[in-house]
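It is worth pausing here to work through a concrete case rather than discussing structure prediction in the abstract. The textbook approach is simple: state the sequence, then state the predicted structure, then interpret. We follow exactly that order.
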Amino acid sequence: MRTPAPVAPPVGLTIAGSDSGGGAGIQADLAAMTAAGVFGTSVVTAVTAQNTQGVSDTHVLPSEDVAEQCRAVLSDFDVQAAKTGMLATAPIIETVTEVVAARSIPLVVDPVMVAESGDRLLDRDAESAYTDLIAAATLVTPNVDEAEALTDQSIETPDDAVVAGETLLEMGVDAALVKGGHLAGETVVDVLVTEETTERFEHPRIDADAGHGSGCTLSAHIAARLARGEPLIDAVAAGTDFMERAVRYHYAVGTGGGPVNPSVDLQNRAHRAATADGVRDVVTRLEAADARLLVPQVGLNVAGATPHAEASEDVAAVEGRVTRRHDGIGANGEVRFGVSNHAARVLLGLREDDPSVRFLAACRLDTDVEAAVDALGWTTSRTGERDTIVANARLAMERADGTPEAIFYDGGPNLEPVCFVTGPAADRLGERLLELLAELR
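Step two, the predicted structure:
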């Protein structure tokens, strides 16, 4: 018999509708809380027949059933934060306000009125019932349409969102996050308004029809961070950063707009060890093949990005690079994350256009290397400055309808030329490097 080793994570509560498609509502909330290290409890307010294309049917539970679920959870669990989603009717909103307001815990209110597909999820007569719930909340997270309905104000710019946020504060809420995803522009600007400050969180717009569950996931993620004891502004800042990745790396399931990925950070962390192992495997193969012909004077580096890499700390490389020795080549340090800003910048730049690119090696570049690459028939790109690597790679992609397999970086008068060899997987990168080595020999 083994000794048990239980864990005691913070507990969060979501009060929302069920999405049969799994991408929004209770399902998205619980996934987001779990991924953030919080144990999620739930109160179901309505059952929807829903998928990525829309809502075909809704069954709202009696408010008495909602109240009983709330009492069951709150009487047993030490809930550290709660969030609300689809509340559907005025009686349910009033019930939730009465039950939750009595608890001195952070409350995030996502005033769900319309689904991402455009289907209405709240009785029009219930909109006014939100007033008391918002007054009891720590944070309210409306999108532009919801903020307009709650404040009776037109919102066309981030400045308008600030004014709407100030109006929401007058309703009694501690803070208002007016989400800017529905506003036009290449940049999404989310505006947080509190009594003390106004913060703007800006992120590049993702060119994807993948907003299903975004509001649910964001509010649940923020609630989870509040349950962990994080300050409100920090929780919101982390939540908006998280949403950029959750949208970019959304789930390609269903035939409508793809659901966002609440587990994006969890999945990224889970792949760190395998990514580092992939880099080590490439280095081992190069050492065994005595690949001195591929190593520049400054050393060769191999880098690997996690599947959802967005920053240099998500890129593993050889600390100190791989250099020539009297009897071959060898790595000068361990494979670590965040140790090569140069390799990371190139790799992350390529991933902006093709996120399938995950591994890269910076090899020697000379006329014989160029000739060997040409003989192998690889797609290539050429650049004379580091800052134009990505731009030139994009041109090569447009010409060849694919990611370049080699990028010639000429280096200029003070920097050694380098041939960047890329690949979607470590084993394929290793094969390409050995193919290049064989051609050089």
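Step three, interpretation. The chain has a mean pLDDT of 90. The two ends are 60 Å apart (CA to CA).
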